[in-house]
Amino acid sequence: MRHVLLVVAVAAAKKAATPRFSVIVDAGSTGSRVYVYEKVEGAELSGSRGAKAAPGLAAFADDVGGVAAHLAPFIRFARERVPEAEWPRTPFRIYATAGMRLVARARAAAVYDACFAALAPSGFRVARRDLRTISGEDEAFFAGLAANYAMGSVDGDARRVSDVVFGALDLGGASTQIAAPARAPTGERLRAGDFSVATFLGYGVERAHATSARRRPRRDGAFRRARL
């Protein structure tokens, strides 16, 4: 989900009172990872990422007691990379994808409330509305936008620098997203309307593997792997 985090950081960079840093946790289906972005020259960003921490946030839906420990390494990572004087101005966000889309709304809200309680004393700028699950359609658009950034078709502010627009296939752990160019873009920046998007919840790598394992027939004792 790095594409999502990059786009969020770019969006924040467009505002007048732009914070120099932005911290975002990618809460995927199999685990979470923290990213710290810094605005550098012009519209460009530099970033660093922390180690992945398993399991995903959805695993705490039945017991939110483990959320604080799950987030603690991310807070430490961010503090090591953001000067303390910048903490109050640095937004700290959590954006979750398919794993949390599979969780009932009330239980997901309880998880994010626990996240807010854990992050509030961190010193960073934390808003409850910035701890949430994004839609599959948004994730697909972000994948398309990030692909074009990686291919040099847009700059770090999503401004078009080429007439070529690339699509993207984003195969995650619990879902798959597709973004295909839908038209020749006419605006200064690539926008959601420039893509035709589709999202397939439950068709990610990990979910497909789990389904395959459940449906795989047992080997009969009469059939054994031959020794060569």
What does this structure look like?
There is one protein chain. This protein is of the alpha/beta class and 228 residues long. It folds into 2 domains: 2-133, Nucleotidyltransferase, domain 5 (2-Layer Sandwich), CATH 3.30.420; 136-213, no CATH class. The chain contains 6 helices and 8 strands, in the order H-E-E-E-H-E-H-H-E-H-E-E-E-H. It has a 5-stranded mixed sheet with strand order 3-2-1-4-5, with helices on both faces. Strands 6-7-8 form a 3-stranded antiparallel sheet. It starts with a helix and ends in a 13-residue tail after the last helix.
Report the helical percentage.
25-40%
- Arithmetic mean of pLDDT: 88
Instruction: Kindly report the CATH topology of the largest domain.
Output: Nucleotidyltransferase, domain 5
Task: Please state the CA-atom Rg, rounded to the nearest Å.
Answer: 20 Å
Low-confidence stretches: 222-228
Number of domains: 2
CATH architecture of the largest domain: 2-Layer Sandwich
Strand order of the largest sheet: 3-2-1-4-5
The count of strands amounts to 8
First-to-last CA distance: 43 Å
Count, helices: 6
Main β-sheet: number of strands, strand sense, barrel status?
A: 5 strands, mixed
Strand content: 15-25%
Gross geometry: flat
SSE order and pairing:
Blueprint: H1 2-13, E1 21-27, E2 32-39, E3 45-49, H2 67-81, E4 92-96, H3 98-101, H4 105-119, E5 131-133, H5 136-150, E6 168-171, E7 175-181, E8 195-201, H6 205-215
Parallel strand pairs: 1-4, 4-5
Antiparallel strand pairs: 1-2, 2-3, 6-7, 7-8
Helix pairs in contact: 1-5, 2-4
